[in-house]
């Protein structure tokens, strides 16, 4: 598995704050109207309420529906470190889960990914992220987040919109490996394995 | 199906504001510490963020695991009207889904219900409540709420803690009927049918 | 909802015995080799063992994955009666569930249906058909059959290969109606409703 | 519909090798009536039809429904080797999945295990066993078997009825380990991991 190093130069990114971490939501834009939160308000709420997220494990299927490739995002942190994550983001006020899932898939995979959104709104897994480790396999130091996770087949070409992101396709074996799990943010190695198990592709 | 009429007199209720509607959370107590929200803050946040709920359809099983009875709550509104609802409530900051589910089951069914919490954290259904009708089958005029719904077998005796609540046991046929659906708050008739379908008991 | 009356003339059908009922399997061809059963052997085994089937509820999705249309097969029985059924058929010896599902989808919907086989092999429902009514909602007078049922989005054009079959597209409301349920073979109205519930589209 | 369970007295058993492998069914008793198969017939059918099984992963839960222990069967083969397996067995003609599941749980865990049969008949996984390796993760040299697998909490005391069987309780970590997987028959290490993933307990 080889990956091209994404450009860590913040100046190249259209919005340096747009995705400071995998739980960024792409919804904290200026002028979004009274229904949404300012950055400051969001920071305050994040220590008071569990925040709802959707998360997607992009996959490629063969003609019979078997998972042959798993998509994992590689991104550079503000410190220049490389970490792996999944498609994820916050559900906004008034937004359906499907709309949120579609929006984040387009944000992270580009407009030509042609994701097949699931017919069922029931996630394969619910990942509970807590600021402190030990409560669950998942951690997010910024907040208590509850993430509904879906396996999403994509049929087009993935081109992450943000320069700091790369999409890597892996075999199910590589995606489930200890090595990959060690590189994933917030314990998402467990989430990838649960995704593979849900589609009968866990080695 | 017969039900005892619960006392609609607000004066008899220990806390008149304790359960103004089925989405009440049982967590807005005084002095709960900095991790939670005051009533005022909660009101403001409810128009800014989707609020995470858990919801339970209590059932009684026979020895082979088949659903034979479905528990539906009957309660008096502030106006003295009778409506039906399910066990539900908000997930608090720092609380796991299991803890929230257990807390609300105990609140609504009493300490002797002995609910069998699901081994799987994956809900059978995700109900999206919006303030305006038409976006989904579910409405909640106060807020945008996303509710993870579970079928929960109970093995003990249910005794709702709040005077304004009654638990009625119904057959799957009665629970799935149009008549029951018409009495349920916020479109929860659809949720009951989805619950029955998930356990193979939808007529 | 309008349907063209399929031609019940046996002479027009490529194989008059090919689909005597909805549980036909398309696998009882002459000379299929030692791994399969003759018609006579199959008849005998059908009274001795539960027979494994796959079943599909074809659906059309909108761009966000919501079910907008449900496909129901209309066919003429040997007596000229019209009944409704779903895509279904037997799993053959040595055949994977995916292969069986794909084969029966192609048999009943034609080669241009382009079904999206599910990434997960877990069915949304398991329908147990018994010769005598009352054991479950599903009956099949010929046999004890256990059917793994899937919701399958189709993206192409459906053209049933067999003249005695028609595919009708219905809204979720029509598909879940009592009128449709009354026309469906073997209790499959319950199966259609369970399918709709599993994708959050049960009215 | 009546189902006879196997006689727990070893002396009464017509076949001392009643469980030569994990796919044995405990249903091949003499005099079971015309609805069942003789040993010879079963052998013949096993090379002609996929055979339907149910399989159970016994677990112990804590008070909040979390899996804390996983039950794995240890048994001696005819050659004196020790291998690990799960509760499993064939579904008989006329038998519901719930009846079959209950019967095999009682056979393998004893009458005091008090298993909590699932409210939902939908399995967490469908394991497809083929005689030749490579088609799926699961193999069974005797037959093509399709097994509906369930996670089943037990609340009592497990005491396998058959002398050659032992039940071992393991932590989720041990049950999911490579070492355990290597000892499990027919690829069931994958099945145990899928079970743990389905309940959010996969490490």
Mean pLDDT of chain A: 84
How far apart lie the N and C ends of chain A? 18 Å
Q: What kind of sheet is the major sheet of chain A?
A: 8 strands, mixed
> For the CA atoms, what is the radius of gyration of chain A?
16 Å
Q: Would you list the SSEs of chain A in sequence order as H and E?
A: HEEEEHEEEEHHH
Assembly form of the protein: homotetramer
Question: What is the count of β-strands of chain A?
Answer: 8
Major protein interface: C-D, 32 and 33 residues
Please bin the fraction of helical residues of chain A.
10-25%
What characteristic shape of chain A results from the CA principal axes?
globular
- The SS-based structural class of chain A is alpha+beta
Taking pLDDT < 50 over at least 5 consecutive residues as the criterion, the unreliable ranges of chain A are: 1-34
Proportion of residues in β-strands of chain A? 25-35%
Query: How many separate helices of chain A?
Result: 5
Any overview of this molecule?
4 copies of one chain form a homotetramer. Chain A is an alpha+beta fold and 203 residues long. Chain A is built from 5 helices and 8 strands. In chain A, strands 1, 2, 3, 4, 5, 6, 7 and 8 form an 8-stranded mixed β-sheet that branches. The first copy, chain A, is globular. The two termini of chain A are 18 Å apart. The N terminus of chain A is likely disordered.
Keywords summarizing the entry:
homotetramer, 20% helix, 8 strands, 203 residues, disordered N terminus, alpha+beta, 5 helices
What's a concise summary of this model?
The structure is a homotetramer of 203-residue chains. Chain A has helices spanning 39-45, 97-109, 172-175, 178-183, 188-198, and strands at residues 51-61, 67-76, 82-85, 87-90, 125-130, 138-139, 145-153, 165-170.
